[in-house]
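Table 4 source record.
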Amino acid sequence: MSTSSSRRLSDTRARPGEQAGRIPIDELVIVPFEGFPAQIAQALAEELAARGISARVDAPVPLPDSAYTPARGQYRGEPLLALVSGHGARHVLGITQRDLFARDLNFIFGIASPGGACVVSTARLVIGADDKLFWARLLKEAVHELGHTLGLGHCTDPVCVMYFSNRLVDTDRKGDAYCERCVARLHARQRR
């Protein structure tokens, strides 16, 4: 997988007439964890900006040693989420290339808390992926976790970005946009 800074996610954007829509987040801070390629974080910020989000990339933060579980060779997602939750912005997206797990799940692509913070891991998104597939997966998982920060739960529509991805095939099948039902839920939440 190349990390060329000129690589954009735009080829995964929904076509005219599809539900790409604007993500109702005015400002987002992307916080890379140590070792995450800056050019990937910046390209993600640019793609999210194309969806109406003013995104900036902050300086990398260290991974908390206490989150690492040597027996599994993975990091617990909850401490990483807690770390970025206190980053001082309403909406924060942490991003790491480390493999994550949470509670009783063997692995997670990401984790989020309603109200503003989420973390995405690219560790498994690179498996069997060329550049185009990796970028499509990254965008989908970022938009999915951001949906959780906005109060959306998992969707039963397998092509909606909010569909639960238990495997990479689930991520590859779903789109990178919210379905009509999820868009309606977002609009209803905004009217409150």
